[in-house]
Amino acid sequence: MPDTIPADSIGIVSPSVQKFESPLALDCGRELKEYELIYETYGQLNADKSNAVLICHALSSNHHAAGYHSMEDKKPGWWENCIGPGKPIDTNRFFVVCSNNLGGCSGSSGPMSINPETGKPYGPDFPIVTVKDWVRSQARLADALGIDQFAAVVGGSLGGMQALQWAIDFPDRLRHSVIIAAAPRLSAQNIAFNEVARQAIMTDPEFYEGRYHEHNTVPKRGLMIARMLGHITYLSDDAMRGKFGRELREGKINYGFDVEFQIESYLRYQGQSFVDRFDANTYLLMTKALDYFDPAIDYDNDLTKALAHIKTKSLVISFTTDWRFAPERSKEIVKALHDNDKDFSYIEVEADQGHDAFLMKIPYYMDTFSAYMANVK
Amino acid sequence: MTELRRDLAIISDWIKPNSRILDLGCGNGTLLKHLRDAHGVNGYGLEIDTNKILECLKKDLNVIQTDLDAGLSDFDEESFDYVVMTQTLQAIYHPDKLIEEMLRVGREGIVTFPNFGHWRARLHIALGGHMPVYGAIPYEWYNTPNIHLCTLSDFEQLCRDKNIKILQREVVTAEHKTSTTMRVLPNLFGELALYRFSRK
């Protein structure tokens, strides 16, 4: 954290917790009798409660989307580039809400929470949750905050999938959806990467079938490998070459298996720091939610039919070097939108950062995103 | 509202209110905005230039970032009442294929292009021995985006070959004005050609 908060930051923020005591039926057939959602809000809700924007987070992020929790924070929230005064999601105009998804590990009910039925942490017994479940739970949070209709629901990656699901499941409860670096469902290759990540975690001897906390341990190695794999898919080949190339840490080859190339060092660092802040059971749940996401499945596997009744105007954004959810995948959403004569715009941002680009301050991305949001009334 | 350029005004007159259009190479969205605000016409603009796309977004228009040379295969048959392409035909790799595509996804097509049969273009080559550079085609041969320039006669020949019916034709000057000589000898005096066409 710099000595002073930057002028274009929302500043010091703090989370709130909303407790829900009526049961939530889940897609998997089970229900959560009671649950909590941790969330943050930025900006002011206006008198007619019409300026709320819901931010949906991706795989490993959380409710802390912008600002700082204290002056000691090293980094601001994960989408500081896009949320704040004068930024694309302008907190001078909008009341921004971001919650940690159910099954998460940042304060919403998830595998680390106490199961009210047993008095012990859920661990692997926390039910499998889906994007549709998340959307339902977020709608209940909106009810609690007195928001009938969001001005916009916005998200990148898995967050973009939630924005799309929102438009389908609650057509009257949002006016705009912004779907960034997303896909209408995962490809076999996407699922394959997720499965390797899960196998890395589940075959770690410290996993204990998800009950690692009862053994006072965590499957560090597995979670670290899962995260390293994830990071490979977040960066483009070009970005990796540009950032690390074949650069050697000690300037020479040592003919051994310690870290030699800079990319190895980067991946190990990313993996290790992730282990300290993320729960393995949550990682398993989040990857499953991704794998199961497929809004067309309820509409004869036809995405055009799935989007037929949506009422929102949309902005779809993709990034040229994103190979996790490539522009072609966003164009599947684009086609379904224009097949239905829906109002929308589609932007393809030239960027070399790969999937991670959606978090970056890329001028054309910021400008187009801002221009669209300026017309969100 | 500021006065609309003459060529765009002609196109606006051709398009029925409340219809759906696809504007290929929609630029900064002037035509789309006018059609939406004055005639209740809706649809999409396709554009590749990022600055122009940003202008469209500022006007709250539906714009899709795409390369027209990639074709219109994402669009279903007869999705639009009109498919419009102003001043872009001559910059396309396969204009003949794109015109057919226009009539696949739309019931009618509207194009405008600089007329290479204009007397000044003829004079530049015949007497000057140079590629023409003037009002409607202001580029040098080495930096022009116009790779498929044609004359009115060329375009009409293409329509005959492709079994396309020309419904309306207008010619204007580069300043988007019209005159009697232009109406009598359009291929000689028209700088900018406008056509509305459909399948026979």
How are the strands of the largest sheet of chain A arranged?
1-4-8-5-11-12-13-14
Query: How do the helices and strands follow one another from N- to C-terminus of chain A?
Result: EEEEEEEEEEHEHEHHHHHHEHEH
Q: State the order of secondary-structure elements of chain B, H for helix, E for strand.
A: HEHEHEEHEHHEHHE
Question: How would you characterize the largest beta sheet of chain A?
Answer: 8 strands, mixed
Going across the major beta sheet of chain B, what is the strand order?
3-2-1-4-5-7-6
Derived structural class of chain A:
alpha/beta
First CA to last CA of chain A: what distance?
A: 34 Å
How many strand elements of chain A?
Answer: 14
Uncertain runs of chain B: none
Please give the CATH architecture of chain B.
3-Layer(aba) Sandwich
What oligomeric assembly is this protein in?
heterodimer
Mean pLDDT, all residues of chain B: 92
The assigned structural class of chain B equals alpha/beta
Q: What is the residue-mean pLDDT of chain A, rounded to a whole number?
A: 96
Number of strands of chain B: 7
The radius of gyration computed from the alpha-carbon positions of chain A, rounded to a whole number of angstroms, is 20 Å
Task: Bin the helical content of chain B.
Answer: 25-40%
- Continuous helix count of chain A: 10
What does this structure look like?
The complex is a heterodimer of chains A (377) and B (200). Chain A is α/β, with parallel strands linked by helices and 377 residues long. Chain A has ten helices and 14 strands. In chain A, the strands form four sheets. Chain A has an eight-stranded mixed beta sheet, with helices on both faces. Chain A has a two-stranded antiparallel sheet with strand order 2-3. A two-stranded parallel sheet of chain A has the order 6-7. In chain A, strand 2 (24-25) and strand 3 (31-32) form a beta hairpin. In chain A, helix 3 (188-202) runs antiparallel to helix 4 (220-234), helix 3 runs antiparallel to helix 7 and helix 4 crosses helix 6 (262-277). Chain A is globular. The model of chain A has no long low-confidence stretch (mean pLDDT 96). Chain B is α/β, with parallel strands linked by helices. Chain B has eight helices and seven strands, in the order H-E-H-E-H-E-E-H-E-H-H-E-H-H-E. Chain B has helices at residues 6-14, 30-39, 50-58, 95-105, 119-128, 152-161, 180-184, 186-189, and strands at 20-24, 42-47, 63-65, 80-86, 106-114, 164-172, 192-199. In chain B, strands 3-2-1-4-5-7-6 form a seven-stranded mixed beta sheet, sandwiched between helices. In chain B, 42% of the residues are buried. Classes of the chains: A alpha/beta (377), B alpha/beta (200). Chain A binds chain B through residues 331, 334-335, 338-339, 341, 343-348, 350, 364, 367-368, 371-372, 374-375, and chain B through 20, 42, 44, 50, 53-54, 56-58, 60-66, 74-76, 79.
